[in-house]
Automatic annotation (TrEMBL), chain A:
Belongs to the nitrite and sulfite reductase 4Fe-4S domain family. This is Nitrite reductase [NAD(P)H]. Binds 1 siroheme per subunit. Binds 1 [4Fe-4S] cluster per subunit. Residues 319-386 form the NADH-rubredoxin oxidoreductase C-terminal domain. It comes from Urbifossiella limnaea. Residues 6-284 form the FAD/NAD(P)-binding domain. Residues 624-760 form the Nitrite/sulphite reductase 4Fe-4S domain. Siroheme binds at residue 676. GO terms for biological process: nitrate assimilation. It comes from the Bacteria.
Automatic annotation (TrEMBL), chain B:
GO terms for molecular function: 2 iron, 2 sulfur cluster binding; metal ion binding; nitrite reductase [NAD(P)H] activity. Coiled coil: none annotated. It is an enzyme of class 1 (oxidoreductase). This is Assimilatory nitrite reductase [NAD(P)H] small subunit. The lineage of its organism: Bacteria, Pseudomonadati, Planctomycetota, Planctomycetia, Gemmatales. It comes from the Bacteria. Pfam families: Rieske. InterPro entries: Rieske_2Fe-2S (IPR017941), Rieske_2Fe-2S_sf (IPR036922). Gene3D superfamilies: Rieske [2Fe-2S] iron-sulphur domain. The gene is nasE. PANTHER family: 3-PHENYLPROPIONATE_CINNAMIC ACID DIOXYGENASE FERREDOXIN SUBUNIT, FERREDOXIN-RELATED.
């Protein structure tokens, strides 16, 4: 078709490729599209490079459009070709052997990292952080190195630093010229809080420090600062800001200031040439984030295809979140631009390293930063994006409308509400995709791009799937108990009972669609709870910890934990533990968070001997079972204690030791509401009340997730507490999905349901629960007694040495 | 009798074949570690009656593969759950190299391992 106009795009990055997609989506016949990209790849998601560097994503996963996409869409891509000249008179661009005429030209050349003019930046081991190749080179070079220095303490520098930390370096130091980190997004107080958070993660930060020289002969060996001090470095990553790529535009005479100047329709000073992305300056602004460029490409595509020729782009509001794990940070607007008339609303909670600040201008939110806890972030983002008036009581900016309302409001949000800020995807678009059968977060991402940017909206996408697909079509595998057997738990239990399947391999043979190790472990746990004594225990369905009854450590050694019921031990036992630790040369003796003594670094062969020498029962530190019952001192010794928490803790641990569950279970008992045993963050927590009763609560956790328990009931005696807790434990064991902790189980099933079952006997299962408790206790065999008689050959052997035959 | 082709053609050393153990010293569905001529080898016996052998150190972070779980003819490393295929040693994760595999044969009740020339 010779009538088609030629659209040429220089730059195959986030903006260039997105523009072409937007153009094709509106009108796929209008243009013959030719793209030039300096990098030898299709198009990838640059903002996920931090994940590639820290190893959580494979380079393959971040490609947005692989090379095949260009072919399928009839887009000619010159990958790995840099455009070196534009002839605006003739309307031709030139790149290494290619001469390409155009009717419409779009510049999307992005920016390049700014490298400060200090000596030594060309040494081996000095990198910038911008492209996939940079990432790969950094990761390769970091192998076996010990000290890294990142120059620049902005958003990107911190992501680079966190990424480097995953490469087993001894130290990673961030150097920042400004008095605090992320000085663009944060004020001084926020910067301080961030500095503390970063240091907790193991990073060092040197602020108010400017780099004078990168030292080394051929390879970098250190960094010298303006004050003359130095730090050793075997790898340096420079992240000192970016500069728009405008050389090409300047050379051909387009108007440029800080970047290529464009009007509200992204047009440069030449009516045939347009620009989008980081290389352009619009109404004085140059953006360094993706959200604005999505807005730009959308407008430009409508203008170019004639779909909405009058459409204008009026600028973007910028907001970002820091992606690196362990740092909760959101920022919107420019916190530093303060006018005399601005109101500043601030909240800080130093103990939790929480710091929130909002700037209100003319009754609207003009900027904000949130650190440590992003509870109100969505709410603030709404106010900020929509220029909505902030609440009269300024306090409500942070408080009322925050997290508590969030769950409910997801359903009530209008369809136009933006869920994915990186990609500008609205709730309506996502819901349409879900209704069309996209019922997993990745499949919604594929269809709409939601969640494929920085990923911080994935939770909301999941929420929408649950809300919408509940009524439409859910991904069936989500309800399966284990992945390799396509049945939910009740169906599986019924089948297993009906067919009398007593071993894992029988279940796989009769009901399975495949095998994987996680399914093996899940089924083993289920069958054991269903059949107790009759269960056929196949050792290959157990993870190594459950085969050798000890927890495998990173060097292949194991750990031994003598059981200490309720955290109580005796002088004799302590002596014995000490003697055994010495005899077996135990490299580390450690008190654990669960009030026990851990003997770490034990060789497999030594395990049975140590158990025998200790002559105490051992404790579970590995299996999906009851782990510990943490107690406080209680009324025995504590001057505040109102009841004997230690005694109840011991009774609970003795009764429920050896019970296996879908996930680990931890208990806690405190002797008064001061709660020294932290019982409100346990799977089951018990707290003695002033009146001498016990308050039982369930569903708490203080691990990767933190959740406070929900109060189940109050009971008067220790015996009642034991009964109620036993019923709850069996109910949880029978109804939770594999690996579902109580902190997910309790809210999923609902506290009201649990109360009806456990307290009111609504399902008539009390007797069953109590019987199950007794049966499980009766079926318990001390696994550590296998030390006397290993169950299979080599169970407690490190490696058997075989002599070589004589060579003939 | 079978021997493996020599890996380094320049050297004229011989592959060594050793009797490892009796078949019933290998637990069904599991692995077991042996030290032979200074190398630690993990030998597995699958539920369907096959026996195979790999180096005992996972190429990722040296996890003891003999302590791993078997899934069909793959072993799952106990450390970070990367999987390696029994015969080729190939890993299911990108950028992790294959684990060395060794020839094992069962003759009657005896298990033999062939180590390539050092
Ligand atoms: C590690 C990292 C993490 C980031 N994280 C975030 C984040 O979480 N959130 C966020 O919003 N933003 C983030 N950003 C910023 C975001 O990636 C950029 O704003 C965005 O990529 C800009 O898009 P662009 O198309 O303008 O430029 P680019 O994506 O850089 O694309 C420009 C392309 O043009 C090519 N090019 C340049 N000149 C020529 C030429 N003469 N001939 C041919 N090709 C040429 C370049 O090779 C490049 O591929 C991050 C950036 C990095 C580097
Ligand atoms: S929780 Fe109460 S009883 Fe227990 S140690 Fe603390 S103050 Fe004492
Ligand atoms: S050491 Fe084997 S998977 Fe990590």
């Amino acid at each position: 078709m010779t009538t088609r106009q030629k659209l040429v795009v220089i730059g195959n990055g986030m903006a260039g490729a997105r523009l072409v997609e937007d153009v094709l989506a509106l009108d796929c016949d209008r243009f013959e599209v030719v793209m030039f990209g300096d990098e030898p790849y299709g198009n990838y998601n640059r903002i996920l490079l931090s994940n590639v560097l820290n190893g959580t994503q494979d380079p393959k996963e971040i490609f947005l459009n692989p090379l095949a996409w260009y072919e399928e869409n009839n887009v000619t891509l010159h990958a790995g070709k840099k455009v070196t000249r534009i002839d605006r008179e003739q309307r031709v661009v030139y790149a290494d052997g290619v001469e390409q005429p155009y009717d419409v030209l779009v510049l999307a050349t992005g920016s390049k990292p700014f490298v400060p003019p200090v000596p030594g930046t060309t040494l081996h081991g000095v990198f910038v952080f911008r492209t996939l190749d940079d990432c790969r080179n950094i990761a390769d070079y970091a192998k076996g190195k010990s000290n890294a220095v990142v120059i620049g303490g902005g958003l990107l520098g911190l992501e680079a630093a966190k990424g480097l930390m995953t490469h087993d370096l001894a130290s990673v130091t961030v150097v920042e010229m400004a008095p605090w980190l992320m000085s663009v997004q944060l004020d001084e107080a926020g910067g301080k809080v961030l500095g503390q958070t970063i240091e907790k993660l193991g990073l060092k930060a040197l602020t108010k420090t400017s780099t004078a020289e990168i030292q080394g002969h051929t390879h970098v060996t250190g960094v010298k600062f303006a004050d003359g001090s130095t730090v050793p470095a075997d790898i340096v990553v420079i992240s000192a800001g970016i500069r728009p790529n405008i050389d090409l535009a300047k050379e051909c005479g387009l108007a440029c200031e800080r970047a290529i100047v464009v009007d509200d329709q992204m047009r440069t000073s030449d009516g045939h040439v347009f620009g989008v992305g980081e290389c352009v300056q619009h109404r004085g602004m140059v953006y360094g984030l993706v959200a604005p460029l999505w807005e730009q490409t959308k407008v430009l595509a409508e203008v170019l295809t004639g779909t909405a020729p009058e459409k204008v782009y009026t600028g973007s509001k910028i907001a970002t979140k820091l992606k690196v794990m362990g740092v909760e940070l959101a920022s919107m607007g420019r916190i530093g631009d303060l006018k005399d008339t601005d109101e500043v609303v601030q909240y800080s909670e130093p103990a939790r390293q929480v710091y929130w600040k909002a700037i209100v201008r003319d009754g609207k939110l003009s900027a904000a930063c949130l650190l440590g806890d992003l509870g109100p972030a969505d709410n603030l983002m709404e106010l900020f994006k929509n220029d909505a008036p902030v609440p009269e009581r300024r306090l409500e900016i942070f408080f009322t409308a925050g997290s508590a309302k969030k769950d409910v409001s997801l359903a009530d949000l209008p369809d136009s509400h933006q869920i994915c800020d990186c990609n500008g995807v609205s709730k309506g678009t996502i819901c349409t995709a879900i209704k069309a059968g996209k019922c997993t977060v990745p499949s919604v991402g594929k269809a709409t791009r939601a969640g494929t940017g920085c990923g911080s909206c994935k939770g909301l996408v999941k929420g929408l799937i649950e809300a919408v697909a509940g009524a439409v079509k859910a991904d069936p595998s989500e309800g399966w108990y284990v992945p390799a057997v396509p049945m939910d738990k009740p169906t599986l239990v019924a089948e297993v009972r009906k067919r009398g399947l007593k071993s894992v391999s029988e279940v796989f043979r009769e009901l399975g669609t495949g095998v994987d190790e996680k399914s093996k472990m899940g089924l083993a746990s289920l069958l054991k709870s269903l059949w107790n004594d009759e269960y056929v225990d196949e050792r290959d369905a157990r993870y190594v910890n459950d085969r050798v009854h000890a927890n495998i450590q990173k060097d292949g050694t194991f750990s031994v934990i003598p059981r200490m019921y309720g955290g109580v031990t005796s002088a004799d036992d302590l002596i014995k533990i000490g003697v055994v630790a010495k005899k077996y040369d135990v490299p580390m003796v450690k008190v654990t968070g669960g009030q026990r003594i851990d003997l770490l670094g034990v060789k497999k062969d030594d395990l049975p001997k140590m158990w025998a020498d200790l002559g105490m029962p051992s404790g579970y530190a590995y299996t999906k079972a009851l782990r510990t019952v943490k107690t406080c001192v209680g009324s025995e010794f504590c001057r505040y204690g109102t009841n004997d928490s230690t005694a109840l803790g011991i009774a609970l641990e003795k009764r429920y030791q050896g019970f296996e569950f879908p996930a680990k279970v931890k208990l806690g008992v405190s002797g008064c509401p001061r709660n020294c045993a932290e019982a409100t963050v346990k799977d089951v927590g018990v707290i003695a009340t002033e009146g001498g009763e016990w308050e039982v609560s369930v569903g708490g956790a203080a691990g990767a997730s933190v959740r406070k328990t929900d109060v189940l009931c109050r009971v008067k005696t220790q015996a009642e507490a034991l009964t109620v807790i036993g019923r709850f434990l069996i109910y949880y064991r029978d109804n939770a999905k594999w690996l579902e902790r109580t902190y997910d189980f309790v809210p999923r099933v609902g506290l009201d349901t649990i109360k009806r079952v456990i307290l009111e006997n609504a399902t008539g299962l009390w007797e069953y629960f109590d019987r199950e408790v007794e049966a499980t206790i009766a079926a318990y065999r001390d696994p550590w007694l296998e030390r006397e008689r290993p169950v299979y050959a080599g169970q407690f052997e490190d490696a058997k040495t075989v002599a070589l035959p004589m060579l003939s | 009798m079978q021997t493996l082709a020599l890996k380094s053609p320049g050297r004229n050393a011989r592959a060594a074949r050793v009797r490892l153990c009796d078949l019933d010293e290998l637990p069904v569905g599991l692995g077991r570690a042996f030290v032979v001529a200074g190398r630690t080898v993990a030998v597995f016996r699958t539920r369907d009656g096959n026996v195979f052998a790999t180096a005992n150190a996972c190429p990722h972070k040296a996890g003891p593969l003999a302590d791993g779980m078997l899934v069909g003819h793959q072993v799952v490393c106990p450390m970070h759950a990367f999987r390696f295929t029994a015969d080729s040693g190939e890993c299911d994760q990108p950028n992790v190299c294959a684990v060395t595999t060794y020839l094992v044969e069962v003759e009657g009740t005896a298990v033999f391992l062939t180590l390539p020339a050092a």
